Amino acid sequence: MATSGGFKKDDPRINREGRPEGTKNFTTKVREALETIAEGKDYTYEAAFIKSILKKAIVDGDASTQRLIWNYLDGLPAQKMDITSLGEQIYGWNDYQKNNIRSEILDKAPTRKPKKVEGNSGS
C-alpha cells in the first residue's frame, strides 16, 4: 500500500538519472504508429482511425462522438466564470493607482552606478 507524502529523501525508487536520452514518450510512439501503413492495406492506421471515428459519428449517429469532433474542429465556446467578485464589477486600475505602484517599485529598486569605460575619456 502506498503511503501519502510521495518520496522521502534517499528513497531508492527515485530515478536520479531521469529518462534516458532519445527515449520516446507515449504520444510520440502513438503518432509514429499511426503513420505506418496498416497490415495488408494501402492506407495508414491514422486514416483507418479517422475513418472509424467518422463512421461512429455519422453512420452510427453517436452523439458524443459528434460532439467531440465538433469541439475539436471549432473549439469549445469560451466559459464565463466569476470566481472572485461575487458578481460585482471589477474595475481596472486608474492612472493614479498605476503611478503609485510604479513609484513604489522604483523607490525600492536598487540604484546602479553607470560603468566606467576605460580608454574613453569623452573628448
Quick recap of the structure?
With 123 residues, the chain is mostly helical.
Descriptive report:
By secondary structure, the protein is mostly helical. It has a domain at 26-74. Helices cover 41% and strands 0% of the residues. The protein contains four helices and no strands. It has helices at 26-34, 45-59, 63-74, 95-108. The mean pLDDT is 81.
Features:
mainly alpha, extended
Characterize the largest beta sheet: strand count, sense, and whether it forms a barrel. Answer: none
Q: Poorly predicted ranges (pLDDT <50, ≥5 residues)?
A: none
Q: Which band does the percent of strand residues land in?
A: under 5%
Alpha-beta content class: mainly alpha
| Fraction of residues in H or I helices | 40-55%
Reading the helices and strands in chain order gives: HHHH
> Counting H and I runs of at least 4 residues, what is the number of helices?
4
What's the mean pLDDT score? 81
Q: How many strands?
A: 0
Topology of this structure?
Blueprint: H1 26-34, H2 45-59, H3 63-74, H4 95-108
